[in-house]
Amino acid sequence: MLTANQAATMLALQDKMNAKVNPDWINVGSPFLRAVVIEGAEAIEHHGWKWWKKQECDLAQLQMELVDIWHFVLSAILIKHRGEQNLAQADVFDNLSADSLAFDGQTYQFSDLNLLEKLELLIGLAAAKRYDIGLFSTLLTDCQMSWDELYAQYVSKNVLNFFRQDNGYKEGTYIKVWSGREDNEHLVEVMAKLDVKAEDYQDSLYQELAKRYALLDVT
């Protein structure tokens, strides 16, 4: 189960990341839940939904989409509470263990829904400028992820996002493919060599990425 320390860490990291892109991001109020709609649709594609053709569920990609969705949900929570970390953290835990939600005049029991139906509900909520942590939690379970695993992947992706920004991502000068492989692939390799529970994990991960970016052929 998600811990208070994990929630606090992720909220702080998300605030720091968004502030790096735009220091006034809380007041700007960008539509982060719109991004949840898009990422949710991409998750459906990775699951497969076309009944007229054979498709295979790509679980690893589904899990990655959930990590991306979580970035945007945290951002929406922080905007809702004007950047107040304590209020945002309380919001995360408010209905974390809920087994149902009411939406559009109907009550949805999560146990009655399959994964695709839950993703559709996630998208519907996001389009209506809403989110539900209980629904997200049950999506994690369906995608065979624990909160500990989400935390590890979130922190790692956050470090990569910082690294990208520090190396010209916003300006368009960052090179995403290093020696024929995307930076995400290098991230996975580095993560496997480090202890995510170590106090210096974030710094160590950043430094390892920097070494690879500097030494590998990025052309």
| Multimeric state | single chain
Number of domains: 2
Average residue-wise pLDDT: 93
Helix- and strand-based class? mainly alpha
Helix content: 55-70%
CATH class assignment of the largest domain: Mainly Alpha
Low-confidence stretches: none
Question: Which key terms come to mind for this protein?
Answer:
mainly alpha, two-stranded antiparallel ribbon, 219 residues, all-alpha NTP pyrophosphatase fold, 10 helices, 4 strands, single chain, 5% strand, globular
Task: Outline the fold blueprint.
Layout: H1 4-21, H2 25-28, H3 32-47, H4 59-80, H5 85-94, E1 100-103, E2 106-109, H6 115-127, H7 133-142, H8 147-166, E3 177-178, E4 181-182, H9 183-193, H10 201-215
Antiparallel strand pairs: 1-2, 3-4
Helix pairs in contact: 1-4, 1-5, 1-8, 3-4, 3-6, 4-5, 4-8, 6-7, 8-10, 9-10
What features would you describe in this structure?
The chain has 219 residues and is mainly alpha-helical. It folds into two domains: 4-143, all-alpha NTP pyrophosphatase fold; 150-215. It is 63% helix and 5% strand. It has helices at residues 4-21, 25-28, 32-47, 59-80, 85-94, 115-127, 133-142, 147-166, 183-193, 201-215, and strands at residues 100-103, 106-109, 177-178, 181-182. Strand 3 (177-178) and strand 4 (181-182) form a beta hairpin. The radius of gyration is 18 Å and the shape is globular.
